[in-house]
Amino acid sequence: MEFNAxxxxxxxxxxxxxxxxxxxxxxxxxxxLLDFVQMLGxxxxxxxxxxxxxxxxxxxxxxxxxxITNKLxxxxxxxxxxxxxxxxPDISECFQVATPEVLKACIQAFREVTSNHALELxxxxxxARELLVQENGFQRVPLRNIPNLHHLVPKxxxxxxxxxxxxxxxxxxxxxxxxxxxxxxxxQCWKSLSSTSxxxxxxxxxxxxxxxxxxxxxxxLTFSKQLLIAFVYPGVFVFKLYPRRRTKQxxxxxxxxxxxxxxxxxxxxxxxxxxxxxxxxxxxxxxQILGSMFRVRRSMVFEALQWLKRYNTKYYGxxxxxxxxxxxxxxxxxxxxxxxxxxxxxxxxxxxxxxAGYVPSNEEG
Length: 365
What we know:
Helix content is 40%, strand content 9%. Helix 9 crosses helix 11 (298-311). A hairpin with a 2-residue loop joins strand 4 and strand 5. The chain contains 15 helices and twelve strands. By secondary structure, it is mostly helical. The strands form six sheets. It has a two-stranded antiparallel sheet. The chain has a two-stranded antiparallel sheet with strand order 3-6.
């Protein structure tokens, strides 16, 4: 017989089985008690199933009565507002123009909910979330007054952690120094720290929610540079460059945009050849693997590999940075191997047709 005993409390399970002698270990936790119940005979399980059905039906009736009561109260409130004590609604002011006082009150209410104060954003020192300050109950408190501050000490440390006395916080949100340092904390984190729980706030950085900021060495990597240091390769990407503005005049190659926009087509590659190409731990990869026209700067590739080897030891800790391959990369230029893959379409109508859509552009009216 299958049943869900999780709806019953420990006391309800024991009370539903009066003839069973529960061991001390079974009574210690609710999980242990549920495991003990699973080993009982069919008769005891039938008694337990009846107790579960009785509680479920009781809760359902209470919920139903509560919903009906709430609906009746809502109807009474609406009738009281609409009729205002009269037997019939008052429609004498239905089509009257709003008075200046009413208009002023509406404008004032609109300004209050759209003002800079109402829309002010803040970053929580504990969870690093950017939230509305007024809506999320932010408060600035001294660091020494934060309750249960030891909950903000991470169990696992990382070399890039920025902490204050071992506490993992958003340092940019802290004002002052020493005893005068204050933190900006949202209401959710403050309530969690003020409670009797032995766990950190569920969204706090100390609760294994820290991912760190993206270092500049990786932020500056373009698509081509990312391929040079990647362990996993995508298929073949085809990039098409279009003019920034659509005109009826012939396209000038100098006006082609550098950003990527639109659809990207991927094609399956030869897996055996791909595995042979990426075999080994030498970094960076040869520039022959690049398939689109982008500039490569050897110094940026070298700095990114150094950062990954030092801080991302799980994947890059065993790589060998080859100085000869670094020197083979161009210094802020396009590799010859990439230039050889470029194909230029001379027919201008092809680019117009490919970039056309169902929605007309502003220039087309």
